[in-house]
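Input chain follows. Return structure tokens only.
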Amino acid sequence: MTADWSDLRKRVVSAAVLITVGAAEIWLGGMSFALLVVLLTGAMVWELCTITAPDHHNTPLMMAAIAAASLAATVFFPEQLSGLFLLVPSVIIALTDRRDRRLSAGYAAAIMVAGYGLIDLRSAGSLTIWWLVALVVASDVLGYFAGRMLGGPKFWPAISPKKTWSGTIAGWIGAAVIGMAFVIWGGAGWWLVPLSVLVAFAGQMGDIWESWIKRRCGVKDSSGLIPGHGGVLDRFDALTGGIVALMLLQLLIALPLPGVG
């Protein structure tokens, strides 16, 4: 079966723009980076609400505003219980009429936690964010090309028909290489290599979770905001899964991260 590369040019151009903007914001950090993450989080919740309740024309925009405001309140006005604001979109989604409310509410919580995690990790330094982005991108790119070129058995065909074992394993290899690079040139411990693979796997699960929601809603892309990539959710689903896993691991084990100590 011949690989389909018809969308490659659009994907490359869009990826170049995303990488340029993202790199500039990671370098800048501070308020500029935080505001970008708040806006992206709102866009992701907007897409989630749009595909799960397409007949609720005004609800997605309202939910995007609520998500952005909830994340901003958590980040900019930190108090002992301010983290509870991150659950506000999930509670609303769980209580409104839409497809797969529990599945969508859980994913909304993941989006909010990932948004907070990005801002929190960047406040401690940019190296951890570079590591995260690099391993997710390496996993995604190698998985994309290996899956298209090698094909083979499907990883989870009932939920994500295009994902193959060849692409999945190639993604793990790419993440391991990134981990090794940060060990050799970034001074991190060797524990970072298996951690990179684990976070990449969590990213793949984030991708599959989003694919599951789209499949149940009967849509191909979460939106058309990013040419060649679909929507914001389609582009940042793996990063969402990876950050959530990393935040949970930090709570349980408190491993030192690149640039954090």
